[in-house]
Amino acid sequence: MSLDITPTLTATEEARRQVEICNACRYCEGYCAVFPAAFAERSFSDGDITQLASLCHNCRGCYYACQYTEPHEFALNLPAALAEVRVESWARFAWPGAFARLFQTHGVALAAALVLGTALIFAAIRLLGTGAGDGFYAYLSHSAMVAIFAPAFLFPLLALAMGVRRYWHEVGGTAVTLADLRAALIDAGRMRNLSGGAAEGCNYEKGDRYSVARKHAHHAVVWGFLLCFASTSSGTILHYVLDMPAPYPFFSLPKLLGVPGGILLTLGAAGLAMLKLRADPALGAVAAWGGEMAFVILLGLTGLTGLALYAATGTGLVAPLLALHLGTVLAFFVTLPYSKMAHATYRLAALTRDAQLKRRAG
Predict the structure, then answer these.
(1) Cβ(320)–Cβ(123) under 8 Å?
(2) Residue 202 forms beta bridges with which residues?
(3) Cβ neighbours of 252 (radius 10 Å)
(4) Are residues 45 and 29 in contact, defined by beta-carbon separation less than 8 angstroms?
(5) What tens digit of pLDDT does each residue of 80-105 get?
(6) Can you spell out the DSSP letters for 58-126?
(7) Residue 140, phi-psi category: left (phi > 0), alpha (psi -120 to 50), beta (remainder)
(8) pLDDT of 66-76, one tens digit each?
(9) Pure H helices in the chain
(10) Is 312 exposed, middle or buried (0-12, 13-18, 19+ CB in 10 A)?
């Protein structure tokens, strides 16, 4: 009888093992930003692996092109290895950290509990008669909304800033120039790395076939989210600067921005959810699947409940739909630093660091 005494590698150690093999092979040199960054090095610190993991967009093209995947003895699965490091780093950088681990492992159940629980709280507040004003303010006063949502908006920003600060220190980032930030923003806006080095798209949900569906869904979510944020911002300016409180007519800036934003957010999230169900979970962080799906569902529900609430204006459905929508939005913001939404900030930081390194090498 023999005993297997092979040591179990940590996520970072396993990713380092695979990256070193990729560095020797270099077949995927024309793929996403991970490979040029990796091929510029000869050895990899923990911070280097964290940086490469955050550069990875999990397009999976390298996996299907690789000759060293199982059953080869090297057993490479770089998308999964980097995904494990990425998720582990988010939990490590999160502030406070305990909630991040809980969300990653029980994301769908936790998100559902937060939405329903918060909706019930808003419904109870409504029954206490806090409404004062027209439109939605007849159900929940403006001052009550501000008192609830201002901390819920500001706290995630603080938590994300703390996390990015920890990330930047680990990857060895230095003072950022406007050129570095501009290059990162252009790269992120174009989502170039979601194409995996191929003009036809990535291999996320179709194995060895290319598809641009994930890139399009991401664009819909990003632009939908930005339009919704712009809608809220324009409403804030109208209320506080121009003394024009809600409700607003359809042909007003908050509605002209918010309605298409809600549609794009809903459709984009639905597309991401369907693609995630089709994709091979073994090529990502398996334990974080629930948390990632919960994030997508929360995004979609935020847009969908907002559209439903607007469509129900003037009906008896406004009160319950308002509670559900506000509960969804609040749950989204509370979980934002611990859900996959955090990837947007870490990935932008990774692209900025990558631009720094390219500028210095170049």
Answers:
(1) yes
(2) 211
(3) 17
(4) no
(5) 999 999 988 988 898 876 666 665 55
(6) ---HHHHH-SSSTTSTT---HHHHHHHHHHHHHHHH-SSSHHHHHHHHSHHHHHHHHHHHHHHHHHHHH
(7) beta
(8) 999 999 999 99
(9) 11-25, 34-39, 46-55, 61-65, 78-93, 98-105, 107-127, 142-170, 178-190, 213-240, 253-278, 289-311, 318-335, 343-361
(10) middle
Q: Chain centroid to CA 259: how far?
A: 22
Q: Which amino acid type is present at position 154? A: L
Task: Extract the tokens encoding 331.
Answer: 């749950």
- Structural contact between residues 264 and 222, judged by C-beta atoms closer than 8 angstroms: no
DSSP symbol at 211:
B
**Please, which residues bridge with residue 211 across strands?**
202
Distance CA 155, CA 167 (A): 18
> In angstroms, rounded to a whole number, what is the distance separating the alpha carbons of residues 324 and 337?
21
Cα–chain-centroid distance for residue 35? 22
Confidence at residue 2, expressed as pLDDT on a 0 to 100 scale: 47
Kindly report the number of other CB atoms within 10 A of residue 2's CB atom: 4
